[in-house]
Structure formats: C-alpha cells, structure tokens
Specification:
Layout lengths: L4 H25 L1 E7 L6 H8 L2 H4 L2 E7 L3 H9 L5 E5 L1 H8 L4 E9 L7 E5 L16 E3 L4 H12 L9 E3 L3 H9 L5 E5 L2 H7 L3 E5 L7 E7 H6 L1 H20 L5 H7 L23 H13 L9 H4 L7
Parallel strand pairs: 1-2, 1-3, 6-7, 6-8
Antiparallel strand pairs: 3-10, 4-10, 5-8, 5-9
Helix pairs in contact: 2-10
Length: 317
Amino acid sequence: MTPPRPILITLTVCVACITATVSFASSQAKVSIRFGALPVLQALPLYIAQERGLFTKAGLDVDLIPFNTAAEKDIALSAGKIEGCFADLVTPIVLRANGRKILMVATTYSSRGDRRMFGVLAKPGSSYRFPAELQNVPIALASNSIVHYVTETLLTTAGVPRDGVASLESKNIGMRMQMLLAGHVEAAALPEPLVSAALAQGATLVADDSGLETSQTVLVFAERFLKEQPEAVSKFLAAVDEAAAMINAKPDEVRDAMVQHVRLPAPMKDKYPTPRFPRLKAPDKDAALAVTRWLRAREVIPRTVSYEEVVDGRLIP
C-alpha cells in the first residue's frame, strides 16, 4: 500500500533537515590555522604533512605561510597575522619576555651525536683546527641569535673565556658563507646544509653542535589560539608527528619535497641526506633556561622568563 502523501512530505523534510545539520556541523568543525614556516631542513615535516594531506585528514585548514627570514616571521606572529610558527629557542623567549603572549608547544628537531644543526668553520687554507684556537678571532655570525649562543657555548666549553669569544656581525647567511669561502673572514658560524656545502668547497670544520641539546627547533602558537582551539593544536601536532614518521620510514620519497621547500645549495640537491626526525616532545627545560640566562646576561631581554611561562607541552600526542 502506498503511504499517505503527508507522511512522505514529512520524511523528505526531515531528511533534508538532517543533511543540512550534518553539513553545517562539518563546516563548523574545520579550523583554519595560518602557520609561519622557513625554508630550512628542520621544517620538512610541516611541508610533508601539507603535501600528504595529513592536516586535511585531521579536519584542519592549514595555510603554511613561507617567510624568507626569521625576523619577518616574528613580526607576523607578534601582529597576529599568523596563529603559530616554526622557530628556534631564542625567538619565543625574546617575544615572551617582551610581552608577547606566545607558547612553545613541541620540539621537532634537536642535535645529537649523529646530527648537527650548526657548525663553526675556518676559511679554506686556514690552520685553525680546534675551538680553543679561535680565541679573539672574529667569527662571522648574527648577534644575539641561536647561532651566536651555540658558537659561544662551543668555544667556552673548549676553554675560551667568554670575553675571548669575538664576533663579526653578518646577518645574511648566504653572504656569510661567501665571505668565508672567499677568505674575507677567518671563521664563520653556519647552519646545515651550508656547513656541508662549505666543507665541500674547502672550509674546515672547527666545531659543531652534535649532541648539544640547546640546538632545538620548536613549534610556537599564540596563547590565545592555544586556549581557544586546543583540539586543533593537538591535531596539528599529531599530523606533524605522523609526517616525521613518514620521512624516517621512506626518506628517498620526500627528496622532491625537500628540494622544493628547503634552501639547498645546487650541488647538494641530489646528494644531501634527508634528515631523520625524533618524535615530538616538550622543549628541554635546561636548554630553555640556559638560553634565557644568556639572553638576560646580554640584556637582550628585559626580564627572566620561567620555563612554565613559555612552554606548554600538554598537547603533544
């Protein structure tokens, strides 16, 4: 028997209502995140998470915004133009000490025995071989940066007095490398992959940060966004962690993405090894406090920042 027309009409309307409700809920559930990134090796999991659709699968609309310099990225974060960014330990501590409400939520990469992030190199043909030999020798670097801190740590650990660590201001990394290779400076501090590129062109490695826990890269979010969207941040971190596992499992399959998004010198594009990434973890407390003390001693920051004030690792998967 054919059901009465009024019942059919009622069912049709109800199905339409249910469909509309589901669609509305789905659209409401998607959270947009503008996240600042740099063209460096340690940011590779971010690019892979985007390329492999891991953010989308997690219900996130992530816009990875590329910045050429850390300074541009920091300004965007301070101005609220992005919800989060990729950084080193120095940047978030400086921002927090100056009143910016930001938090480090995870460490994505750190140096250990079999990998380095920074190296101090002597010019080609130089006789310098050990850190202690660089006492009072100007080293080209960007002052009050993580590479400055690492350089000072490497030299003082080798016995150089703090006032014997000399530096020559050089913020442009590419120019710094060229000055070193041309012999215009005796020594320079560089990040990977430029360390490997400079070594291939005759420079000498005097020291590197292998095993130095201070060399960490971190993920940072605005405190406001973290409080409003903790679930979205948790999903973001899980996607980055999954991307890191993909890189570790099949490093050869991400080379094209690495070449596309990371500044690799032309001769290194086909042979530079894909880095391996650890599981996400909270930034190391001792390292963060050591950087804070260094920045305070140099009067880069107006006050001391506690670890709990600048780190929130509760959302790490």
